[in-house]
Write a structure and sequence with these properties.
With 97 residues, the chain is mostly helical. It contains 5 helices and no strands. It has helices at 2-16, 29-42, 49-63, 71-83, 85-96. Helix 1 (2-16) runs antiparallel to helix 2 and helix 2 (29-42) packs across helix 3 (49-63). The radius of gyration is 13 Å and the shape is globular. 20% of the residues are buried.
């Protein structure tokens, strides 16, 4: 079930931003909050060490943030997710089988 949640999150990102990674500084607070929640869901279904470790760091940073994450930092997180989207999807689908 964790994989399905992660796949759903990945699909939601692809649908929300069909042209690729968004420019975080141009997003509203609501869009940034949605990104936080959606990106937190990604790491639960991946166990490949390099990708998983980075997604886990992103998830933990987002989950434990006590104040707004600076746009520059959030942009790095978004960039990692979008630059590795194909690999993340592949890893999640492998776990489904």
């Amino acid at each position: 079930m964790k994989n399905q949640t992660s796949l759903d999150a990945l699909l939601a990102l692809q649908q929300e931003f069909p042209n690729g990674k968004p420019e975080v500084s141009s997003l509203s607070k609501e869009q940034k909050a949605w990104l936080h929640i959606t990106m937190q869901s990604l790491s639960s279904g991946i166990k490949q060490p390099n990708v998983y470790a980075q997604l886990q760091r992103i998830r933990n940073r987002l989950l434990h943030a006590t104040e707004d994450i600076p746009d520059k930092e959030l942009q790095k997180m978004v960039s990692f997710v979008f630059e590795n989207m194909t690999e993340i999807e592949k890893l999640l689908e492998e776990k489904q089988d």
